[in-house]
Specification:
Protein name: Glyoxalase
Strand content: under 5%
Number of domains: 1
Organism: Flavobacterium rivulicola
Largest sheet: none
Number of strands: 0
């Protein structure tokens, strides 16, 4: 399993964000683990969201930019199956030690993870389109 953990860490790259002595354990996990994974998986998250929106009768693509942002937030917060799928895409890139840390505080870390993903998708709303 050490090989897997080393490969995962190498693939993800360095921490993103500032970690100080005053940083909480959640902040450290967020910047050391969640941010690099979200960055690594970014293109996949966009494609997964496009696929989800298409399966929902393409309503998303007819909305104004403001309503698209609200849609992103609403879907990720309310569609449990979709949210769990997105969570799985992140958890798959945890090391064994990170997973052990995650399960100790999964509720708060899930909130951080989903909020960061929502903000990431909203900031790239112009990329979430259907190719004709």
């Amino acid at each position: 399993m050490e090989d897997r953990d080393n490969n995962v860490l190498e693939l993800r790259g360095e921490s993103l964000g500032t970690i100080t002595n005053q940083s909480s354990l959640e902040e450290v996990f967020q910047n050391k683990t969640l941010r690099p994974i979200l960055k690594l998986q970014n293109d996949l998250f966009i494609q997964v969201f496009i696929n989800y929106a298409m399966k929902q009768k393409n309503v998303f693509f007819t909305l104004t930019p403001e309503k698209k942002m609200a849609y992103v937030e609403n879907v990720i917060q309310r569609d449990i199956k979709f949210r769990n799928s997105l969570k799985g895409m992140v958890i798959a890139f945890f090391t064994l030690d990170e997973y052990a840390e995650y399960i100790q505080n999964s509720s708060n870390l899930n909130k951080r993870m989903m909020n960061m993903l929502i903000e990431r998708l909203k900031s790239q709303i112009q990329l979430i389109t259907v190719e004709a």
